[in-house]
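Honest question from a wet-lab person: if I give you the sequences of every part of a complex, can you actually get the arrangement of the whole thing, not just the pieces? Trying it with mine:
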Amino acid sequence: MPTLLNRIVQAEAKPPDQLVVCESCAHALADLACKTIVMGLHSHQVALESGHVLRFDCFSDAPGLVPDNSTTVEGTVFPEYRCVPAHCAQCDEQLGWFFVGPKPFFGILADRTTRIRRTDRR
Ligand SMILES: [Zn+2]
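Yes, you can. This is the full assembly:
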């Protein structure tokens, strides 16, 4: 259970002026200011049967990602949502998922993306 101090720190943490970009091709995917809380957390982890743990961050919008609406992934971690793979709009690598439900959001894989300061972008 979060302490009161934790909650205050979370509330005060301003979104920095950063972009999330594709690690392969540096395509801009989302504004870090669009990071959103789903089920109480910004970031979630999924343990796969293979033993790999995927960590992803939740974003209310990710204009640089293209959801593949022809595919639905079974067994989403969020009960009210179905999810579809989301690909980089530039290099087509899968970088996360689009979760379709009451409040749609993107889950972007932390280890396939990088964060850069907006001002560093040419
Ligand atoms: Zn890419």
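Two things worth pointing out. The pocket of zinc ion is lined by residues 22, 24-25, 27, 88, 90-91, 93 (CB under 6 Å). The chain has one domain: 4-120.
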